[in-house]
Amino acid sequence: xxxxxxxxxxxxxxxxxxxxxxxxxxxxxxxxxxxxxxxxxxxxxxxxxxxxxxxxxxxxxxxxxxxxxxxxxxxxxxxxxxxxxxxxxxxxxxxxxxxxxxxxxxxxxxxxxxxxxxxxxxxxxxxxxxxxxxxxxxxxxxxxxxxxxx
Length: 150
What we know:
Elements: H1 4-18, H2 34-37, E1 39-47, E2 54-60, H3 62-70, E3 80-86, E4 94-102, E5 113-118, H4 129-136
Antiparallel strand pairs: 1-2, 2-3, 3-4, 4-5
């Protein structure tokens, strides 16, 4: 049994290490230069959302920015919201990106949105759709799955 423990430990570490990687062929839901091409709709601020305990900025694609800042729900199909997650309080060091893109007309429905978490390069991280939707389903009362106010 003792001879199996090191092998079991190594197998567990390998499995856990791979659990954070997404399909590398999946393109990001947003342009990698989103900070320059999208509209900032929430300025830099601290957050505990998603268990980040870091700082965020929220961006919307240009076609959706006015609707987001006005709180005009439901969002149109094609709306893309991007949350830049930063390690510093000035929001200059991007750590990761969370994005949601409206792909269906249903209001307040997780299935009407695509969800994604990526590295700053746009490379997908773990598929966390269930984690995203488990929290965002609490943001359905007239907010079309968007949990953050402008």
